[in-house]
Amino acid sequence: DCFSNLPFPRLARIVCQHPGLILMINSWLRIIQKFLYPPVCLICGSPGENELDICFNCRVSLPYNRLCCRICGIRLPAETGVDQCGKCSFKRPDYDSTRSMFLYLEPVRYLIRSLKFHANHASARLLGHLMAEHLRSIDSALPELIVPVPLHPNRLRQRGFNQAIELARQVSKTLDIPMPLDLCIRRRDTTPQSGLQSKRRRKNVHGAFAITGPIQQKHVAIFDDVITTGCTVNEMAKILRRHGAETIEVWSIARANLGA
């Protein structure tokens, strides 16, 4: 009997034989959680809306990255009728497109940094949920695989978590896209990219990544918290393409307006 080793075998058997009970129990748990822990805006402290930790006013004031290059995601200066920047027109990166939901400005900068440096995982859940909603609204084929930018084991031990994984987790779950955590590894403990000039960033991440196995999926998305110059995701795209990926998107919560 598969229920014999459970603490309450009879109850477990009843629940498993009546799937509707599981839905009812989950519904009641959500109601209890909402009552005990109501959503609170992470930005201003007002009550959250639609069960999210953000209020209406703060949500509509977020710095959405609407007018941007379809390839690298950098903000375009004005309505010119073109959909890519001059740099991508001259030399395209090794990935095909970028979807960065926000500009790296306040208060998005605050939310990302509160996760990255203060382990505020509520920020990860909120931003991941908003990103999943954004991606689901786009009328195009979704990738078959999400590949988060990996941290080197030394950096992972120091921080205790990978912010790219924490942000992508909600997206993977909502969109039902697999996210293997060991497919791409960082084999070199590189210097942090922040503070480096573009040329040094490219050199810093050259050869930093490795693929641990064959890639069966042809359409993949690289996921990171912030894209600054694009050097890190471009290096990942190179190695993913060498191992079988054909269409490579870059997904990020935010895009810094520093060029690609």
Strand order of the largest sheet: 1-6-5-2
Helicity level, as a percent range? Answer: 40-55%
Question: What is the end-to-end distance?
Answer: 60 Å
The share of residues in extended strands comes to 5-15%
Uncertain residue ranges: none
Shape: globular
Structural class comes to alpha/beta
Helix and strand pattern: HHHHEHHEHHEHEEHE
Average residue-wise pLDDT: 87
CA gyration radius, whole angstroms: 21 Å
Number of strands: 6
**Number of separate helices:** 10
- Biggest sheet architecture: 4 strands, parallel
Detailed description of the structure:
The chain is α/β, with parallel strands linked by helices. The protein contains ten helices and six strands; from the N terminus they run H-H-H-H-E-H-H-E-H-H-E-H-E-E-H-E. The chain has helices at 9-17, 19-36, 56-60, 86-90, 108-118, 121-136, 153-159, 163-175, 198-205, 231-242; strands at 97-103, 145-148, 184-186, 209-211, 219-227, 247-255. The strands form two sheets. A four-stranded parallel sheet has the order 1-6-5-2, sandwiched between helices. Helix 6 packs across helix 8 (163-175). The radius of gyration is 21 Å and the shape is globular.
Draw up the topology in text.
Layout: H1 9-17, H2 19-36, H3 56-60, H4 86-90, E1 97-103, H5 108-118, H6 121-136, E2 145-148, H7 153-159, H8 163-175, E3 184-186, H9 198-205, E4 209-211, E5 219-227, H10 231-242, E6 247-255
Parallel strand pairs: 1-6, 2-5, 5-6
Antiparallel strand pairs: 3-4
Helix pairs in contact: 5-6, 6-8
Give the gist of this structure.
By secondary structure, the chain is of the alpha/beta class. It has ten helices and six strands, in the order ααααβααβααβαββαβ.
